Amino acid sequence: NAGVTQTPKFQVLKTGQSMTLQCAQDMNHNSMYWYRQDPGMGLRLIYYSASEGTTDKGEVPNGYNVSRLNKREFSLRLESAAPSQTSVYFCATKRERGTDTQYFGPGTRLTVL
Amino acid sequence: DAKTTQPPSMDCAEGRAANLPCNHSTISGNEYVYWYRQIHSQGPQYIIHGLKNNETNEMASLIITEDRKSSTLILPHATLRDTAVYYCIVRVNTGGFKTIFGAGTRLFVKA
C-alpha cells in the first residue's frame, strides 16, 4: 500500500519546455488535488478533481492543465514552463466528501531556468 | 472558510509539551478546526480535527475554547522529530473541495 506517489521527484526545465507531473493513489479516494509551495510559503491550490472525469480550478491555475483519466491518476501539465513556476508540487487525495482529511504525496521539486 | 491566525514560530524543549495556538474568531457554527503539519521537505501530514469538543488521538490533543474562537494543539511530549510547520485550517466538512494552507507556525523542538 504505497498511498500517494509522485513522479518525478526532481526536475530541471528550461524556460518554454513542457512536462507532465504524475500522481497516483491506491487509497480508492474520489478527490485529488495539486498544490504548489514556494520557499517559505504555505500551500496554494492549483487544480482539484472531485471525481474521475471532473476537474476544477483552484487559487493559482494559470499556466497549468490537469487530467483525471481514471480514479487512481491525476496529472499536472506545464505546457510552457516559466521561472515563476519553480516550486515544490504536492499531490493529495481526500478520503470522502464529508471530511477534509487529506493525504499528501512526497512532492516534486521543479526548477525552471 | 474562516481565516486563521497563528504565530510565525515557537520553541519547545524536548520532552516538554508543545502548545500551538490558533485564532479563528470568524468561525461559523458548522466549521471544523483541522491541524496538519509539514516536516521539512515532506508532504503535509494530517494530525487531528474537531468541531467543538476537545479531541485526542495518538499524535496530539486539540482544545477548542467554548466560544470556538480559538484552539490549541498540544503535543504532550515533544521530540526532535516534531520540529515542523504546523497549519491550522478552519472549514466546513461538507462544503467545497478547496483547502487553503496559510504560513502556519514553525515549531522548533530543542534538545
> Can you count the helices of chain B?
0
Number of strands of chain A: 11
Task: Name the poorly predicted regions of chain B.
Answer: none
> Helical segment tally of chain A?
0
The portion of residues assigned to helices of chain B is under 10%
For the terminal residues of chain B, how far apart are their CA atoms? 37 Å
Q: Which structural class best describes the helix and strand composition of chain A?
A: mainly beta
Distance between the termini of chain A: 36 Å
| SSE string of chain B, helices as H and strands as E | EEEEEEEEE
Mean pLDDT of chain B: 90
Polypeptide structure, described:
- The complex is a heterodimer of chains A (113) and B (111).
- Helices cover 0% and strands 48% of the residues of chain A.
- Chain A is mostly beta strands and 113 residues long.
- In chain A, strands 2, 4, 5, 6, 9, 10 and 11 form a seven-stranded mixed β-sheet that branches. A four-stranded antiparallel β-sheet of chain A has the order 1-3-8-7, with no helix packed on it.
- In chain A, a hairpin with a 6-residue loop joins strand 5 (43-49) and strand 6.
- The model of chain A has no long low-confidence stretch (mean pLDDT 92).
- Chain B has 111 residues and is mostly beta strands.
- Helices cover 0% and strands 47% of the residues of chain B.
- In chain B, the strands form two sheets. A five-stranded mixed β-sheet of chain B has the order 1-9-8-3-4, with no helix packed on it. Chain B has a four-stranded antiparallel β-sheet with strand order 2-7-6-5, with no helix packed on it.
- In chain B, a hairpin with a 5-residue loop joins strand 6 and strand 7.
- The model of chain B has no long low-confidence stretch (mean pLDDT 90).
- At the A-B interface, strand 4, strand 5, strand 9 and strand 10 of A face strand 3, strand 4 and strand 8 of B.
